[in-house]
């Protein structure tokens, strides 16, 4: 698959003229087969089912501009010379599926909006509801291959279901799958599912989405496929740094008739005591999972913006506070109600911490974890707690905002913003006029976007019927991209939003705030010059140090390494040398915030939080550096000599002093960790890609070849030589 422009070559150009034609075969619910012909030339294209394909074909149609084109009522306005294959031709007539889509199409004028408002008032008169059956199945396969038929599971119902959504976790546990998201087990399990579908119905494959070992397959009865549209997929990793895909979620959203449906398969954090991390994973998935819309000017759709949400997967919530023998006794008695009352997920839902508004399917089966591998024997390692893998049908209920603000003359202030801290305020816009209106946040003069990159408004555009209101969330979030300029004082938390009303006036919303400087997003050279925690330093001093190119004449010589790096590495060196899954299992967000505050204020002599939280904080620190440990200017040289160990070491010797010190310090620490591999199970193939991509970052997006060269470069430094620097730096003064 082409990832960047470097992966694509231009073989030939086919002009769109009178001698050009397009043959389109729509597989119901599946990818689109396109045959392009020009004179005797012929090109077969397989286009993914979704908005990008529709955009491509509509652009072809537009470019054609009526040349040799016969119009009909199809979506693309191309007369389809269709080849019928197994009667799986997809009807591409668009469906206005819900109110948000109907009222969000900007090409409609005032008269059209009035008509739509009247239609919506009488919606019940021309709509009706039908029930359909969904088979939702989830299977953590523990990296195994399919060894037997899945029919007893997938075809267990008397009546064939209308939809199949089959979820997998831990599809492949190999390092290659973890690092490069590539696995041969995907087609194996896909074939096993296809063969196991209910024999009394014919099904069309719609979509597959996978993130490392988290996979979701979507099949539908052939007779329903014509009514499916707007199929989109997305994925979110919640592993270390919120990116790695060993944990996270994949999702498929689609429209069926006039209903928006979103199906989520998630694999949340493991271990009994980590229920707070599971809660955090759920919230991160809900916040970060966003689907683009056909109209790219419209804001993306989040999970909760759909009419129906179905959530399944290995949620990893455990049965707690019961001994294993008692659990087995309750299972033997089929006393699932007592077990369910000790389920962490139920308790978190009862406290409305997660899955608010969702309804869980009835638990009428025994816990599915943990058995001895490949048997029906309960786990003989005598676990004290058991994990339930949930197969749940869940539906969404709409939440109402509790905070209301009047738009006119209103300003919003965000106090004491911190790195990777989210704050939101709500403004309510009310249409008290006599006609509907459309609103949209528009860019100010000579600015590319309607707001600064640390600010978002959701929704950024929409439609209001007379007497209606809408809540707009103003969200501020400072990340690794925006933190450096805020730390150095080059940017401030100040912006003015222009809310434009179609055929009306503009309103101005003032957003202000203050940002507390952080070591996260500050340069190595600046941090080496700081003698006090960054939040104890005057802002003007931080600005001066951030812009200076050398040492500050008013201070002593720079520290060898930033004390913040020393504190994190020293903590891990003393406490985590034998820690399993180090740098692979994420920590808690709340603990990261405590670690960040400790580093920025110097409030504690030792770092709080678990080893996993400290290790993730170290990775986030390196990721947020405005100039990486190996500066961008050295990147091409590093790739060129990646296979030559001596040349690689020569490049490191030429780094600026503080950068060289940090590089040597970190590699010495990683070498120490590898000495304890029998306990922590770390090896070079795990550590190299994680740290290589942080210490040697590309100024542009990397392709797969560059990633492999970066890994090869860094591997030379994980093999200890007599000249390597020792880990035992003294504490910075």
Automatic annotation (TrEMBL):
A GO molecular function annotation here is: phosphatidylinositol-4,5-bisphosphate 5-phosphatase activity
Q: Does the keyword Kinase apply?
A: no
Domain Rho-GAP intervals: 537-726
Database matches in InterPro entries: Endo/exonu/phosph_ase_sf, Ig-like_fold, INPP5B_PH_dom, IP5, IPPc, OCRL-1_2_ASH, Rho_GTPase_activation_prot, RhoGAP_dom
The EC number on file is 3.1.3.36
Location in or out of the cell? Cytoplasmic vesicle, Phagosome membrane; Early endosome membrane
Question: This protein is called what?
Answer: phosphoinositide 5-phosphatase
This chain's source organism reads: Cyprinus carpio (Common carp)
Its taxonomic placement starts with: Eukaryota, Metazoa, Chordata, Craniata, Vertebrata
